[in-house]
Amino acid sequence: MNPDIAEAVTLDERGTLTIEELVEQSNLPEDAVRALVDYGALSPIDAGAPTWTFTASWVVVARTASRLRRDFELDAYSLSVVLRFAQRVEALESELRALRARTG
Amino acid sequence: MKYKDYYAILGVDKSATPDDIKKAYRKLARKYHPDVSKEKDAEENFKAMAEAYETLKDPEKRAAYDQLGRHAPGQDFRPPPDWEQHFARGQTSFDDIDLADLFAGLGGGAFRRRADPNAPIPGADYEAAVRLTLEQAFHGTEVQLDLSVPEYDQNGVAHRVPHVVTVRIPRGVTDGQKLRVPGKGGHGIRGGRAGDLYLDIAVSPHKLFRADGRDLFVDLPLAPWEAVLGGSIELPTPAGPVKLKVPAGTRAGQQLRLAGRGLARPDGSAGNLFAIVQIVVPTVADDAQRALYRKLSEGTTFNPRAHFESEATHES
């Protein structure tokens, strides 16, 4: 393996990270991460566990939340509503993509 | 250093109040923020307005910006004499400085507002868009990214430097997917960890294949006799052509599935390739061919519209 070539890693359900790592990778403060979990916008693997871990796919959501929080000056509740709409748009786009792929 | 007209970018007068500036920014951000907008050039527009807002919302930075005078956007300029002594102590050269980095660095830049002035500072995360062909997404590839990124000097002032990274993209990435390249963002300061590089993957449309997640779809045109009689045909796949058995009596619109011929999943399995059947008729037929079709029509009771009759009866 060439050491000069960096490996890109996928952010999916296979990888897990601690809440501290999620904070570090998303640039969201920990209290914002905890509030977003309370509002259901982020989901730890086991919300009842003493320390939360997340699948790596939540990094993408948390980074989006971080940008929206910074650029629109949103509080955690508003963020959770916006993220919910964003997920609905994403789901609709995914359905549209699926239809287009099937119909050409 | 190139001039940027922050007031014009936000569409406000130089005399605008902080409230006017905030309103203008919010209105534009709602339209162009890349996370909520599908406008063309949304990202580029948003970057420009966020940079303008970042400077104009801060009274100290706004005053420093106003002292630069007005120039034509894109025009090379130097700050007036003594400007740096008032606003950017320690700044000696403006040649490799971007206006955004200059204002981000006012008052100590990366080093300011730290409770512990000797604490490690983590490197910045970078983001880059990567466009791949479907073949590159299918097989995996290496891409070289030539980024221009801010690097902080000992005064905490950012200078634009080239940042070249070669990244191996794993096979099976999909359009819209985000990848993380650990440690390939900005350098940490005073022992801080390096930032990460995040890649936004876009896969260009392909002439033959359409993707839905890791499944691929390809139109498969068949002659009427191939559909009726069946047979073996050659089908292109991203991994090269394969032989496909077409069953006798194949209908238009039917999907023939080639298991595991789609894009690879991280767990080692793969999506499927679906060949969508189209029945294509020859547009030119000579007398002999027309005679054969006529003979075929006379020798069959097949009625492709039989259901019209039964459904029309059912409706009435």
Write the layout of secondary structure elements.
The complex is a heterodimer of chains A (104) and B (316).
Chain A: E1 5-7, E2 9-10, E3 16-18, H1 19-26, H2 30-38, E4 53-55, H3 58-72, H4 76-103
Antiparallel strand pairs in A: 3-4
Chain B: H1 6-10, H2 18-32, H3 42-56, H4 59-66, H5 83-87, H6 99-104, E1 126-132, H7 134-139, E2 141-152, E3 158-169, E4 178-181, E5 197-203, E6 209-212, E7 215-222, H8 224-229, E8 231-235, E9 242-246, E10 255-258, E11 273-279, H9 287-298, H10 306-315
Parallel strand pairs in B: 1-5, 7-11
Antiparallel strand pairs in B: 2-3, 4-5, 6-7, 8-9, 10-11
Concise structural overview:
With 104 residues, chain A is mainly alpha-helical. Helices cover 58% and strands 11% of the residues of chain A.
Describe this structure in words.
The complex is a heterodimer of chains A (104) and B (316). Chain A is mostly helical and 104 residues long. Chain A contains 4 helices and 4 strands, in the order βββααβαα. A two-stranded antiparallel ribbon of chain A has the order 3-4. In chain A, helix 1 crosses helix 3 and helix 3 packs across helix 4. Chain A is globular, with a radius of gyration of 16 Å. Chain B folds into 3 domains: 107 residues, DnaJ domain (Helix Hairpins), CATH 1.10.287.110; 88 residues, Urease metallochaperone UreE, N-terminal domain (HSP40/DNAj peptide-binding domain, Sandwich), CATH 2.60.260.20; 101 residues, Urease metallochaperone UreE, N-terminal domain (HSP40/DNAj peptide-binding domain), CATH 2.60.260. Classes of the chains: A mainly alpha (104), B alpha+beta (316). Chains A and B meet through strand 1, strand 2, helix 3 and helix 4 of A and strand 3, strand 4, strand 5, strand 6 and strand 7 of B.
